[in-house]
Amino acid sequence: MSESHQDIRDAVRALCAEFPPEYHRKVDAERGYPDAFVEALTKAGWMAALIPEEYGGSGLGLTEASVIMEEINRSGGNSGACHGQMYNMGTLLRHGSDAQKQKYLPRIAAGELRLQSMGVTEPTTGTDTTKIKTKAEKRGDKYVINGQKVWISRVQHSDLMILLARTTPLADVTKKSRGMSIFIVDLRDAIGNGLEVKPIPNMVNHETNELFFDNLEIPAENLIGEEGMGFKYILDGLNAERALIAAECIGDGYWFIEKVTEYAKTREVFGRPIGQNQGVQFPIAEAHIEIEAANLMRFEACRLFDAGEPCGAQANMAKYLAAKASWEAANACIQFHGGFGFAAEYDVERKFRETRLYQVAPISTNLILSYVAEHVLGLPRSF
Amino acid sequence: MKVIVPVKRVIDYNVKVRVKADGSGVDLANVKMSMNPFDEIAVEQAIRLKEAGKADEVIAVSVGVKQAQETLRTALAMGADRAILVIASDDVHTDIEPLTVAKILKGIIDEEQPGLVLCGKQAIDNDMNATGQMLSALMGWSQATFASELDIDGDSATVTREVDGGLQTIKVNMPTVVTVDLRLNEPRYASLPNIMKAKKKPLDEKTAADYGVDASPRLEIVNTVEPAARAAGIKVGSVDELIEKLKEAGAV
Q1: pLDDT of residue B30
Q2: Do A58 and B196 touch (CB under 8 A)?
Q3: Which of A8, A11, A201, A246 is the most exposed place for a label (fewest CB within 10 A)?
Q4: Chain A contacts of B201, Cβ < 8 Å?
Q5: Region of residue A162 (phi > 0: left; psi between -120 and 50: alpha; otherwise: beta)
Q6: Which chain B residues are closer than 8 Å to A11 by Cβ?
Q7: CATH of the domain at B187
Q8: Cβ B193–A58 below 8 Å, yes or no?
Q9: Which of A8, A43, A53 sits opposite B195 (nearest CB)?
């Protein structure tokens, strides 16, 4: 793959061009899911980018996956509907057994199975993940799951979910990050048989849910890796998620910059284009500079992840910079569109809402700052 | 039957073209380049012929600069089996003239012995609309230009052509050169697995000299200018005023 991944960009753009702004606008207005779009991406092999060739995928890295996500957002779409499969894949690839890979990967690559969900967050446990209360108890050849999760996305449009649960109570472990395990939950069997899914209507058209586990039984063979080591495994998925979302924000950022630049060049007030005024130019230029800078950190995070090196700091910093930059670009874009920025047919308000999410999810900006302060710089712990 | 599809690397159709300050042509520095859209339709048609069992092998050919290998990779990712790149210039601003391209294609055809050449009707950069016709003459083959439908049946092909007055259907003997028009098909976009496969497909590199062709230009570009900017319109209050203004402008 070349540095710029132009071949991937061209092909994803060509596919996205079949789904014009009207399509995404309609899905948003109906609070629907972009089924046809995700199906087209799946059919063309994009959702299997990370799956090794021996299992029917294309064996690409996180860098390429991030380019795919970036191009979707840059084309006016929203990768939030389908990025789960990309960040979950790392967890399954790195820590799943050969039998698990053999069982799931070829069917995911063929588009017959979707691995779009990851269940970590709980109502009383956000970023302090080690405090999760959902527990998995081993009984014979099964684990029995009880507890609750919240903000679990794409459950209604996925077949499989990676679930984090405590297998040893917090009180009984030497390190608080131990005693948690990850499992593959087959949602098709689970829903209605110990798993209840309650959708959460929200500000963006994002399919996200509350999950209630009431004696859900899953086969013991669905444990990924070693029991008790799940937190370590899930971190790989979280880092991948941060880097991918950074790329999505960068795609959004370019979309906003292009949209507002075009508008500012052509919209005339007092006999001249508004873009001739430096009060309009500078915020756009500033946002562009920030996007370009964030992009460098995003590629660095992806490079480290693909090399199997620690990338927590870079993935978090990339997500921080990119989410901030896309938000600045969104703000400039809506501001200089004036009233039209609020009209649905300009798509600005929709993208504005969508990109705003990423200063909050999947990790809020303050917690990235705290992570950098305490874990990168070694400042005293505040919690 | 082998099918040869010549493809040209041109300025992307979405790019706003700028004329170079010295008038020698359009500025291609840092400009996005893509496969000529009519050639994409030709590639698509060739692949469909193969899928329908009417062709065995699709060979994409490009004549131009080294960077045209990206264009050939696109054709391979769509489904062409192999590619031949003929390097005829090292300057992206040098346009290889239709007669030169036709002569080089003749050299390739003599080696490959295809039953069909499918070309775009013209390239969107210089709009020459000449290479297919010249190739047909050099080969002494039949030709069917501006195809909007193509049906191959053994030794002949039935082609519906888009002509000024409407549609014309003709029957030509094979082997033949067909140049394709916009409405023949809608080209597919490359899937990720096919992009990956395309990287491993053979792409031979040749030069114009390999086919004994001198690629130096025979035409001289005197000047290139941008189209005149559209003048502002006026609003009229009535039909009478409209007619009066049209008369003033000499339009009626």
Answers
A1: 86
A2: yes
A3: A201
A4: none
A5: beta
A6: 77, 189-192, 195
A7: 3.40.50.620
A8: yes
A9: A8
A8–B192 C-beta distance less than 8 A:
yes
How high does pLDDT run on average in chain A? 95
Give the closest-approach CA distance of B109 to chain A in angstroms: 29
Q: If 0-12 CB within 10 Å is exposed, 13-18 middle and 19+ buried, where does residue B88 land?
A: buried
In angstroms, rounded to a whole number, what is the distance separating the alpha carbons of residues A382 and B28?
56
Residue A3: band (very low, low, confident or very high) from pLDDT cuts 50, 70, 90:
low
pLDDT for position A79: 96
Pick from A15, A59, A60: CB nearest B189 = A15
Q: Which of A6, A18, A45 is closest, CB to CB, to B192? A: A45
Confirm or reject contact between A266 and chain B (CB < 8 A). no
The segment(s) of chain A belonging to CATH 1.20.140.10 are 232-376
A3-109 sits in which CATH class?
Answer: mainly alpha
CATH 1.10.540.10 domain range(s) in chain A: 3-109
Can you give the pTM of this predicted structure?
A: 0.89
Q: What DSSP letter does each residue of A321-368 carry, written as one string?
A: HHHHHHHHHHHHHHHHTGGGGGSGGGSHHHHHHHHHGGGTSSS-HHHH
Contact A326, A293 (CB under 8 A): no
pLDDT at A1: 41
Distances (CA, A) of B150 to A62, A307, B78, B130, B165: 43, 50, 20, 20, 19
Residue B203: per-residue pLDDT: 98
**Superfamily of the domain at A115-230:** Butyryl-CoA Dehydrogenase, subunit A, domain 2 (2.40.110.10)
Tens digits of per-residue pLDDT, A83-123? 999 989 888 999 999 999 999 999 999 999 999 999 999 99
Q: Do A44 and B34 touch (CB under 8 A)?
A: no
Total structural domains in chain B?
A: 1
CB contact under 8 A, B196 and A10: no
Q: pLDDT digit string (tens) for A295-327?
A: 999 999 999 999 999 999 999 999 999 999 999
Residue whose tokens read 């991937």: A8
What is the CATH topology of the domain spanning A232-376?
A: Butyryl-CoA Dehydrogenase, subunit A; domain 3 (1.20.140)
* Omega within 30 of 0 (cis) for the link into A362: yes
Given the DSSP bridges, would you call strands A160-166 and A223-224 parallel, antiparallel or unpaired? unpaired
pLDDT at A308: 92
Per-residue pLDDT band for B252 (boundaries 50, 70, 90) equals confident
At residue B230 the predicted structure's pLDDT band, cuts being 50, 70 and 90, is confident
Instruction: Report the residue from B34, B74, B193 with minimal CB separation from A45.
Output: B193
pLDDT at A383 over 80: yes
In angstroms, the separation between the Cα of residue A18 and the nearest Cα of chain B is 10
Closest-approach residue (CA) in chain B for A60: B196
